[in-house]
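Entry:
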Amino acid sequence: MMERLRSIVKDAVELNLRSVSTLLTLSRDYVKALDGIIRTSGTQPESAASTPEQPAAEPAPTSVASEARRPPLLLAGEPGEQVVGAFVINNPSADNINFTFAVQGQLAPQDVKLVPPSVSLKAGEEAVVRVKVKLTPAFEPNRDYVGMVIIPGMARQVVDIVVRCLPAPPARAKAARSKTAN
């Protein structure tokens, strides 16, 4: 009887581990596919600007950098709101490093504010960089705007950003329409 109970527990644990492993693999594949969509959408018109950077970016997926890639930063809010997200940047080297950030993609530079816009880090230091986006009337509801923060000098030089303007709740949408009518 005890041997049968051990066998059942062992089989149940193995099943549980296989299920979790499958779920993690599925999640990883989803994030990779989403990353591919984010990277390829909206980049075609910027052929002159993207061409020099693409050769540097191609070796990364075949190396360890593909596993260390940051997930996209999702910022979502209603019209008129300011959405905020953040990422951490660190200096793993033994030298002091200055970083200046730039924004590219479907987001207009005037719509995105990086705080701080640049940072100096001593060896081993880290800093939090906040990304603020004001959801102006130019942002269409239920549409994703893809952009990226470029960090020259970092091993992982890009932080992907996805900004989504959510539809306003009915009461707010009605108030916004009445304000624009006046």
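Helices lie at 2-40, 47-50, 54-57, 59-62, 170-181.
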